[in-house]
């Protein structure tokens, strides 16, 4: 069975039906970038509990469905505009960036392209260098092209290696420059406001698979947690070579986020059972070697 | 502090034969820094980053090592620990500032920990200083839905039996049953049985039956000292269960009970009684077989 990685999905907003469907469709690993919640937070404690959820409960919840969950940590650009709060979040981040399963600093960058956004974007680029993590850049909805260029200019200004930076939410207008400058170009299949699968297929046809990554960015808005496998299937139908499908929906994400040292194929191919009692036999290698271990029935949680 | 340092020495020795040299070097340099400088942020960072140096392979301790652990701190049982949590425990025990700073830091660590870090912290409770001050933290920890975190508190851990008030203890045991955890690994389970817990267990069984579900066989261990007429009715049902483990549990509960009207039932199960007498049927065996069946 094909394996996919969805390297950008906000799983705290998704149901167990989604998890089951994702696993069934072949998604073995996901990355959940720290973002906003649809409305701005007003207390630093809300950030703390959110960050703890990303490395705690959500990671566990995903494991119950046989999906390995990673995350990125960061202060998003929208909430960077509340400067007093943003400063407190910056003090909190060092507690989280070194944790297991944190594969990048992100999603950071610009929204309205304000001075405050610029300040906290730069501070977090420095943080990424300090702890040797890749960076996931969120590019703005409005004034996108200039915002994307500026994100890359500033990343370079801070000495970031473009090979360590994923520029997200690209479209036909931004992709060329991102690839030409050596950055990774991620595409969000989010039909109403971002990309559709058909457009994605055309981009892979035109630019090839190198440094191109497909994600769903599924969240609390109208979005599709199966966008990655669906786009992969459409690519196959449209005659895109299998190796190109594999690179754009699996391997490229693993290669760049794997730079963190926190993400390995063995995490899902040889997943240890979470339940320690089942580990006593000592054999955590899978029969057949392909299907990840599932934690167990998901109906024994208290709710 | 003396015990803390002895625990560190013991745990380092366990890792010494199991972890890689460069990982041990990292750990030793971190513990020295943490001990000398006592800066919470350095301690937090090392605690998180330990996952880059140590694997989650179980320690697989020898009988002698387990015995030494128990001699070190009463009830301390790292037989299910992994290398990573052992390293993290060494870091926690090496951080030795004055009480107020320690409590503040350890609480911050609990509040910002991911699940494997929480597992390490809760399992290390018996080795920590200021045990009385950690009670509400441990009780709160039982509210988790993450199995590995719950297990770290409830199973193979002397802290709950020695510190939890009865109501919290009962909640923990019942939750373990709800989550189908192996309760034979809860320390002092028999010593801390009580009438309220027996009644809760029986009520829980009735709820499960009403919903057409099975009852985890180990549950009947909780009612043994309190078997009277009403619980005997429950057990009559259990001993004739089609599920072999349930039947074994029912018969074993009656066998261990001192309530004489119950004993007649045993006559119907001569083979099981004999197996009990030969030690072939025990609570631990039933618990293990049940977990095996679930897996």
From TrEMBL, chain A:
Organism: Algoriphagus boseongensis
Highest taxon of the lineage: Bacteria
CDD domains noted in UniProt: TatD_DNAse
Matches recorded under Gene3D superfamilies: Metal-dependent hydrolases
InterPro entries linked to this entry: Metal_Hydrolase (IPR032466), TatD-like (IPR001130), UCP005295 (IPR012022)
MF terms in GO: hydrolase activity, acting on ester bonds; metal ion binding
Pfam families in alphabetical order: TatD_DNase
UniProt record similarity statement: Belongs to the metallo-dependent hydrolases superfamily.
Protein name per Swiss-Prot or TrEMBL: TatD DNase family protein
Region of interest (Disordered), residue spans: 274-303
UniProt signal peptide: none
Keyword terms of this UniProt record: Hydrolase, Metal-binding
TrEMBL record, chain B:
Domain of life: Bacteria
Protein name (Swiss-Prot/TrEMBL): 3-methyladenine DNA glycosylase AlkC
């Amino acid at each position: 069975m094909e394996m996919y990685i969805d390297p950008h999905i906000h799983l705290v907003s998704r149901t167990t039906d989604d998890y089951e469907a994702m696993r069934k469709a072949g998604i073995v690993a996901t990355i959940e970038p720290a973002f906003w919640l649809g409305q701005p937070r007003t207390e630093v404690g809300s950030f703390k509990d959110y960050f703890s959820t990303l490395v705690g409960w959500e990671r566990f919840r995903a494991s119950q469905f046989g999906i390995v969950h990673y995350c990125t940590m960061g202060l998003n650009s929208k909430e960077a505009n509340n400067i007093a709060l943003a400063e407190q979040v910056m003090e909190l981040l060092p507690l989280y960036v070194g944790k297991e399963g944190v594969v990048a600093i992100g999603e950071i960058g610009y929204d309205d392209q304000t001075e405050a956004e610029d300040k906290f974007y730069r501070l977090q680029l420095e943080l990424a260098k300090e702890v040797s993590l890749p960076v996931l850049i969120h590019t703005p909805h409005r004034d996108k092209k200039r915002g994307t260029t500026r994100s890359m200019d500033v990343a370079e200004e801070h000495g970031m290696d473009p090979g360590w930076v994923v520029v997200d939410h690209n479209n036909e207008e931004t992709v060329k420059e991102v690839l030409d400058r050596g950055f990774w170009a991620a595409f969000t299949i989010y039909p109403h406001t971002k990309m559709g699968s058909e457009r994605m297929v055309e981009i892979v046809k035109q630019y090839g698979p190198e440094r191109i990554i497909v994600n769903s960015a599924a969240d609390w808005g109208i979005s599709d947690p199966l966008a990655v496998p669906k786009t992969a299937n459409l690519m196959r139908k449209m005659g895109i070579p299998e190796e190109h499908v594999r690179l754009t929906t699996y391997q490229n994400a693993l290669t760049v986020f794997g730079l963190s040292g926190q993400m390995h194929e063995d995490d899902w191919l040889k997943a240890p059972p979470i339940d320690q009692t089942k580990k006593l036999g000592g054999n955590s290698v899978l029969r057949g070697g392909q299907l990840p271990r599932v934690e167990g029935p998901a109906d024994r949680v208290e709710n | 502090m003396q015990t803390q340092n002895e625990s560190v020495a013991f745990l380092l020795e366990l890792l010494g034969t199991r972890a890689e040299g460069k990982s041990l070097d990292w750990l030793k340099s971190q513990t020295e820094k943490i001990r000398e400088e006592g800066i919470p942020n350095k301690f937090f960072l090392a605690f998180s980053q330990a996952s880059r140096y140590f694997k989650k392979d179980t320690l697989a301790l020898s009988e002698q090592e387990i015995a030494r652990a128990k001699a070190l701190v009463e009830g301390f049982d790292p037989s299910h620990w992994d290398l990573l949590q052992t390293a993290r425990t060494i870091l926690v025990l090496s951080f030795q500032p004055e009480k107020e700073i320690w409590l503040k830091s350890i609480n911050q660590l609990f509040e910002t920990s991911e699940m494997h870090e929480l597992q390490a912290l809760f399992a290390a409770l018996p080795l920590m200083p200021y045990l009385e001050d950690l009670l509400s933290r441990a009780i709160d920890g039982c509210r988790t839905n993450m199995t590995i975190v719950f297990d770290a508190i409830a199973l193979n851990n002397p802290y709950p039996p020695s510190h939890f008030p009865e109501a919290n203890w009962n909640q923990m045991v019942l939750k373990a049953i709800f989550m189908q955890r192996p309760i034979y690994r809860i320390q002092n389970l028999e010593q801390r049985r009580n009438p309220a817990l027996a009644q809760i267990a029986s009520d829980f069984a009735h709820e499960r039956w009403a919903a057409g579900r099975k009852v985890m066989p180990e549950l009947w261990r909780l009612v043994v000292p309190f078997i009277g007429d009403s619980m005997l009715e429950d057990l009559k049902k259990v001993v004739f269960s089609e599920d072999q483990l349930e039947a074994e549990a029912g018969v074993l509960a009656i066998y261990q009970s001192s309530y004489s009207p119950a004993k007649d039932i045993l006559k119907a199960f001569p083979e099981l009684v004999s197996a009990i007498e030969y030690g072939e049927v025990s609570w631990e065996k039933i618990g293990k077989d049940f977990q095996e069946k679930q897996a």
